[in-house]
Structure formats: structure tokens, C-alpha cells
Amino acid sequence: xxxxxxxxxxxxxxxxxxxxxLPERKTLVFIHGDFTACDRLDLTATIAGIGIPALVVCxxxxxxxxxxxxxxxxxxxxxxxxxxxxxxxxxxxxxNPEAFNTVLTDFVNSLR
Length: 112
Description:
- By secondary structure, this protein is α+β, with helices and mostly antiparallel strands.
- Helix content is 43%, strand content 23%.
- It has helices spanning 25-40, 44-47, 67-76, 92-95, 97-110, and strands at residues 2-7, 10-17, 20-21, 55-59, 81-85.
């Protein structure tokens, strides 16, 4: 489960297991595998074929999928929009849920 924890006065997303922080060895192996798979994933040729309305949402401080990459994704999906959420990183929906919900609601309402 992902939980927001206050560490050094800053909210960050942490993996939590029964109230205690991981890492257990199996969790580290899982996280390494997840990062490796993400690093190898290349959808560059595929995203141009998306033919439905799309909104790319990115935390302005996202280090895993930085804003420049989100801009690239937006630029390569015909008609896509981009919402950069201030005060958030990779877990934008947890780190700034109010802003995330606002941009998502506005996007969905624009489809009507």
C-alpha cells in the first residue's frame, strides 16, 4: 500500500506494510523489477495512434516521468492536453489530490 508520510517536513509517498516501512528483500526485488520494466518500455511509436481525447497529468516536480517527457507525450498524441500540477511529483494524485481532481474533472466535463 502507498501511504503519504511526513519526513523532514515534506510529504512523500512511501511503501507501507502493516504500519511499518519496507524494504523487505522481496519488495526491493519487486521495485527493481518494476523500475527495470519501466525503463525498457518504449511506446513512442504507439502513442501517435491514440485517437481518443487524452490528458497527460504530471507533477511539476516528477523525477520519474519528468515534465519534459510528459510534454513529449502530449505533443505526440493528436489533440492531447497537458496538466502540470505544482507541488507534486510522481504520485501527483496523492501529493496534490485537489489539483488533480480539478484538472481531471475539467477534462471529463470538456468531453460532454
